[in-house]
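Predict the 3D structure for this chain.
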Amino acid sequence: MHHSIEIDHLSFSYPDGHSALQDVSLHIEPGEKVALVGPNGAGKSTLILHLNGILLANLPQKKASGDSRVTVCGLPMEPKNLGRIRAAVGLVFQNPDDQLFSPTVFEDVAFSPLYQGLSPAEVEVRVKAALASVRMEAYAKRISHHLSMGEKKRIAIATVLSMQPEVLVLDEPTAGLDPRTRRALINLLRELPMTMLVSTHDLAMVREAFPRMVIMDEGRIVADGPTQELLANDALLETHGLEKV
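Done. Predicted structure below.
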């Protein structure tokens, strides 16, 4: 069985010359739930954007030794594989308004399956299942932009789940939520039975829902291991700008 995510010796610089990733290697097994943490500017968002080809045009050329590689769900990150990779990796942005643009919740969640060319009957099955997964079945006819931030975040997750991805990638899922809504979202993420990578500053959430933690700083992975062990290392947390929880 292939890894869900295989990143080997990945470096990346933006057009202005800023080096965002430096020799990053990360393997995630099917079913693993992994948290990606670190200070602002550590490279977390740049790394997750590589996982569905958003930055493919700027991917570095392979080194002479051929050791720079990104493989997702068994598919090398190449232009010919982008469609399949984007179906396999569901990316949920920090701001749900970046993903909700249709008149109703149903239409938002149905958009990607319709774009795939599925039949109306199959689309309806997908939408109902996705909304049930985030406990939002009663919201199908609601207007997305009239919902609360927490409700919008759940619907944004549903728009991704309707594609039946192998991997769910989330950027700061608890940002901007009140305590009750945050608690409900943490419970949801813990219960979803799928491979998951989350970029976050919420170390309390990481402790509860993500058994493995990867710490990034200045474009590098500086620690990778069991969450409880890394969170118990006060010196490590302080060195990389993370607060003890």
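Residues 120-133 form the longest helix (14 residues).
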